[in-house]
Amino acid sequence: MKKFTLALAALGLGLLLALPSFAFGPREGRGPGGAYGNPDSPMMGYGCARGLDRLNLTDEQKTRIEALELAHQKEVRPIREKMFDKSVELRRLWLEADPDRNKINAKQKEVRILRDQLEDKRTAFRLEVNKVLTAEQKEKLAAYGWGRKAGFGPRGGTRGPGGGFGPGMCY
């Protein structure tokens, strides 16, 4: 009887200690706050990650930027899908018993070409968004560090544990 009471008390204590971890509820998608895959997230919309949400945009500006963003997403989706497929193929090449250097180099080159295409599309998108903004908004945006990558340090690279998005593509 004493062992049963002790086991029941240990189980109750374990549940009591685990209870706060359930208080936050599930998070959709990846990233802080579940912004990916959650259209209702405050991180989604007309460029929260880029600082556009802090510029006091007019309704017309919001509409134009959202249209630009939607067009940009439709334009880059096939490139992202190709890049993902090529990355999977590259991973499979590396996992072979005897990896072929030439095949790996060729596949890496294909991934780099797609990454460059994405970067060109991103630059064109940002230039179009820039045309929508007033001079004052452009100054504020520059102060927020628009275009810098997330993270620490001058190049935006993250260091140490925490807040990562796990393995996979960032595009």
Number of helices: 4
Order of helices and strands: HHHH
CATH class of the domain at 57-141: Mainly Alpha
Radius of gyration, in Å, reads: 23 Å
Q: Which spans of ≥5 residues are poorly predicted at pLDDT below 50?
A: 28-46, 166-171
Number of strands: 0
Largest sheet: none
CATH architecture of the domain at 57-141: Up-down Bundle
Named CATH topology of the domain at 57-141: Four Helix Bundle (Hemerythrin (Met), subunit A)
Strand content: under 5%
Average per-residue pLDDT, rounded, comes to: 76
How far apart lie the N and C ends?
A: 59 Å
> What is the share of helical residues?
55-70%
Shape: flat
Query: What structural category characterises the helix and strand content?
Result: mainly alpha
Protein model, in words:
With 171 residues, this protein is mainly α. The protein has a domain at 57-141: Up-down Bundle (Four Helix Bundle (Hemerythrin (Met), subunit A)). It is built from 4 helices and no strands. It has helices spanning 2-22, 59-95, 101-132, 135-144. Helix 2 (59-95) packs antiparallel against helix 3. It is flat, with a radius of gyration of 23 Å. The chain starts with a helix and ends in a 27-residue tail after the last helix.
